[in-house]
Structures
1.
Amino acid sequence: MHPTKSGRWITQTVSSTYLSEAVAIWLRDLRSEFRTRYAVNSILMFALTTLVAVSFSIGSFRIEESERPFLYAVLLWIILVFSALSGLSRSFVKEQEAGTMDILKLSARPQAVFLGKLFFNLTMLAVLELIIVPAFILLMGYKIIFPGCFVAMMVTGGLGLGAGTTLVAAMIAQANARGALFSALSFPLLLPLIITAIKGSERAAYGISAAGWPEVKIAAAYAVIMITVSLLLFPLIWEE
Amino acid sequence: MIYKILLTIWMNLIIAAVFLYVEPAAGFPGEVSRILFFHVPTAWVATLAFLLSMIASSVYLITRKVNADFLAQSSAELGFLFCFLATVTGSIFAKATWGSFWNWDPRQTSIVMLLMIYGAYFVLRSAVPDHEKRRMFAGVYSILAFCTVPFLVFVVPRITTSLHPEDTLNPANPGMDIKTLIFFLGSLCAYTGLFVWMLRLKVRMLRIMDREQRAFRSNF
């Protein structure tokens, strides 16, 4: 506090913005994740195991050339979605298990908590995709005609995955039977996104003109809507 | 009581009439078009119930009145029942006209999605022990799920084309003759009446159960 010229005292508060709180939570989660590597290990091991199983049983020549764009898109997204579902709930479940939920409730505003957890989940998904997608392309001989469209589909699809599951993770952290519940609750919400992402990846691998862009837009719209609705609903399930 | 008796008479009249009085629609093999009087009303009631459940959930989240949650829960359960009936009747119609019980027609895809969403809704309800939290989560989940429905409407038709009859059996279309239309609307009213009756029973049941539980707990 310091006096102004008129002699009155004004209070100067250090106001933190939503974004700075969210970034603080994100960095803290990243640091704790870096120490234990629990979520990232479980997601990556799940993904690698399924990738190896798929690649071993199908290989790069078993499927006919004309069938590849569609079937490879299906396989890739099944691997991505189910590995994401196996680990993304950690972001909230670990708070519950460590007993830090209440302190988190006190120290940041609900929307900031949601954004921080969303950033963390998106980071996990980025790591997952950066490792699994190139490995899948190499192992399966996946020919992509339009790399730009394909990359955009992966980015928006990942955004949608994170956006659709973060609020569900916050709910199941406070419920019983967490592991099974997370997949059961997330899957119906993600189905429109998965259908879109499969279609978009298939079209990016086709020889016709890049027809996958509408799918990219749909996935982006899905992500934006889910994030907006989650931001509105999150305070309801966070505060008591 | 009087409501129940009237409803019984009305439904029996409609059922008898659609089999004995109304002629089957042209363009469909044999008697299959009569499914119109049973399939469409169940689908309509399912839609109505899910919409009502969503609205009641929102009301609960705003006002925190327990009655709104009872309404949301009962409505979702009945909607699930009617949605299941619509799936089964639609599947029988699909076998009779398209040759297979299930072929992932866009209509079938979206109805399965609905069943999955509300299946998950009940799983969530049963997994949260705390009453207050359970109601809150159920409301939040049903709103979240409702937001994904528009995507199904736009996304699924992009994948495949539908074989579902729209024009020949659409009541807004003049292709339906007046006798069929009257009994179709009669059947729609009957099913809606049945839904309202079941809904009131279910809400009453939940309210009594809640009161009993509270009384039981206050004994200790």
2.
Amino acid sequence: MHMVRRLAELTKIDGISGNEKDVREFIIQNLEGKSLKFYTDNIGNLIVKGRSDGSSKLRVMAAAHMDEVGLMVNYITDDGKLKFSAVGGIDNRILPGQHVRVGRDKIPGVIGCKPIHLQDKSERGSAVNIKNLYIDIAAKDRENALELVNTGDYAAFASEPVFFGENRIKAKALDDRAGCAVLMELLEEVWPFEFYACFTVQEEVGLRGALVAANRLKPDIGIVLEGTTCTDVPNVKEHEVSTVMGKGPSLSFADRTSLADRGLLEHFAKTAEKEGIPYQWKTTVSGGNDAGRIQTSGTGVRTLVVSVPCRYIHSPVSVLDLDDLKNMHKLVSRALHTLPGALGR
Amino acid sequence: MNTDELVKQLCEINAPAGFENLAAEKIKSFFEPLCDKAFVDRFFNVIGYKKGTSENPGKILITAHYDQIGLIVSGFEKGGFLRISNLGGVDTKTVLAREVIIHGREEVYGVIGAKPPHLLKESEVSKNAEITDLFIDTGYPDDVLKQKVAVGDPVSVIAPANELKNWCFAGKSLDNRAGVAALVLILYELQNIKHPNDIYVIATVQEETNLLGAIISSYSLEPDLAVVIDVCHGDMPEGDKAQCFPLNKGVPVAVGPAFQREYTDALFETAKKERIPTQRCIEPGNPGTEAWAIQVSRTGIPAVEVGIPLRYMHSTAELVSLQDIENAAVLVARYVSGDIVRTYDEFI
């Protein structure tokens, strides 16, 4: 399957943190028959050992997280409405009137909101409070709701992938199914070193999967493939723009959870320049990702984060540029192949 | 066609207020096979005419508006973005992170964005976004976009349309495609009922902005009686019980000065006879629906109104019961086939 098609398919799957099973199964099914070794660890990370010609002793771990942000039902009211909390970071402003699917059976529902006709002036002017929101699955009452769903059930945004504009895709969960799609593509290749592709769990609730995967693998190098914020939109000041859509994959020199390894950073930037692959620096240091846990695992791991810019990240309409995605794959692939030489190993 | 399929097809149609030309023929295609004559007037009201059996028939109008609230392109921003303004009563809380279709020279897809949450100032966090804070991201380079879209082009917000449990259905524009669905179901009913009076079902335009469709069609057709079908607020946890009506619990019939008492009483009588449960929807003044305009058209036209309870009005997740739509249709079909039109002595 083509990488872009794979990405679209990946975004259709619901895999909110702690419930990544369906994403994992899709990845395994899609990579079967390519003489790869699959291992699912205790926490649910999928670790795939790639093919290697054994020419270098380096051990490289590349990680992308399978989980996405979403909602979790935490209370069912007497009249059968589902109260919920966010799993991961969600912009509450986007919630009223969204369509969702709840639980294993994907029960369709909508997030209720008081109609504008019935709001008083102060309500019209103020932002929504997640505590006042609920999911309506049209249950008659609590008992009827409990026949369909339960507290602890996940609710995912009902948002199908759409290709639009020039070379853009809109979907939910681009963060980080985009990384997953690139990582799957990397598994098609034969590497000079030991290569482990880690599809991690629970990134969105605290970078939890990557920590145990890194502890198991004890890699020399950790490359994290991410979807990152892209704030090149109206009303944002120039210095607040983290990445720009269409300008290629971004390299982070730092974020809230890790400082990049300077050697890796230099090698990736040089590779991009040599190969004529567009790339950009992520110019803000907000946000964090799996690199923060991989870097501090074991006796320490040299890490780097490469990301595809995603506008409206963590929303049902996140957007990325397909050329950015292709260039991200190209850059990571080229830079990894020449890595042993660059590091003298 | 089942009611769920009918409602799904109708609510997937895009007809922003004032731009109903985009959908008039499609709406007509639902009426045409069930009428003696179906036509579109010059303001894009879609009218289905069904001849009565009486030698001297009265004229009954049944209206449901088919326009929808929407957005309108108000300007360009560098990077393939569009500024927007509202078309009708749009709550900005319900359009952020939504998908849209811009009806330009061609249909252009986009998503609605705003300044990202982590960049909002403390003072902005507690406020609802203004429409001017929002923009559409089209994904096109500026020069390409300008060839496809112009300022003033209408925009439809689109959303999934799904059947839910307990005969319910959620989607966009159910205000008032639920009413248009009832019109189609009424025409189905009338295939098997003899009716003395001429009946005109009208899918009207521009209700959301100024009731234009109802004003002009009631003037030009000069009916003896008008039945308005529109949505009313469904029961919601945060809704006032006097203004919000439970789903699947009976057809709301409007009571108040906008609605002629004797005709409303007759409507309740029909419901009782046909064993169709009703609720009383009290409107002490302007109900905000077409009945208000029709009542004072020409020399005065008696109007009654049948409601369809709908939750989360004007959001992309409006929620109705298919059973309520069917019940409203059966009630109105039985009502208008009766010998109900009264004649008045000519005065002047």
3.
Amino acid sequence: MPLPRLIPCLDVAGGRVVKGVRFRELRDVGDPVELGAAYSERGADELVFLDISASVEEKASAVRVAARVAEQVTIPFTFGGGIRTVDDATALLEAGADKISVNSAALARPALIEELARALGSQAVVVAIDTEHGRVRSHSATRDAERDTLEWARECEQRGAGELLVTSIDRDGTQNGYDLEQLAALRDAVSLPVIASGGAGNARHVAEALAVSQAALLASILHEDPERLVALREELRGLGVPLRDAA
Amino acid sequence: MTTVAIARYGAGNVRSVELAVRRLGAELVGDLENAGLAVLPGVGSARSAMDGLGQAADTLRERHAAGRPILGICLGLQLALDETEEDGGVAGLGLVPGRAVRLQDARVPRIGWAPVEPGGEAYWFAHSYEAETEAATATSEGHAAIVEHGSFVGVQFHPEKSGAAGARFLKSCLSRA
């Protein structure tokens, strides 16, 4: 198995990195390229950019952001948010993204996963699942998707998804620890790599998540401060997590 | 200055390879036949890639026969083999004896950074198939990581996405071209 991965997540709106708790109360925290490059230099294994722009005009900036990131960042990155068609996804990959992530669009039309896998290869297709109490939420977790999380995870795998990015909505932004029970159930339900998200407050939380998942998404724990990644990596090494030597 | 031509065969992340090669000071050219180094990148699925290669397939075979450097990345390595299991079986370019077979790992696709031996340097992998060939000169967790046969060098990892280690690897490829 490849080494456990630490993946800083940058929420992007209108071409800027923004921050909010539970998808609300957004504020501007910086430039996606600058922040992304800083995380990359400090040992991030991959990056995830989630475009949470509300308007169509803002969403048009996603491909430009991906293109700028690819020029400065030499580690893999995933782009998610607002991808509804193979053309949307192709434009992001051609700009330099390595993977795309779909969420609500896949719930609305699951065949999208197959179309993306066929066109781009499974390794480029991440399905993001927002989950609460074992049930899937959609539309930035504002709606009940009326699906069981484990069943949906299995369906994603069968349809050709390459990875699952699983966010425990009730933990997101709380820094109270990942939903380990849910992550362990997912580990047993599918044979895809799982990226754990939601709830990281300290290094021990991240180590716990990496014991049951292949990667940990890091958002509020980093406070948009790349230096925190350096400290976190050191603490994780101290806890026996075999991170890569990023020199 | 080394000139590099990238074989194009469809949609996908070719731009990262272009950017990485330019960062190292090489010049990108369109002439796949005469460039100092030809790169067969790794995007999409085997069948669409072979279909998309068209004429470039013969150009690559001629390059290989003439002993001129070719670098295959990820799917680009698998396409250089005799055949691949992917998409119900697809004939490859036949530059390297061997075949690509489905990974039997606990988690597929195999995604992430993994050490490559000899050397122990970690590179980034993202694959569901692997090369089964006697031409492997380096491995990663038992999988072929670097394959060398004549003037062809193939890597299962993505040097263009492997940070400083990847840049060092690409630089060594360019210096040999």
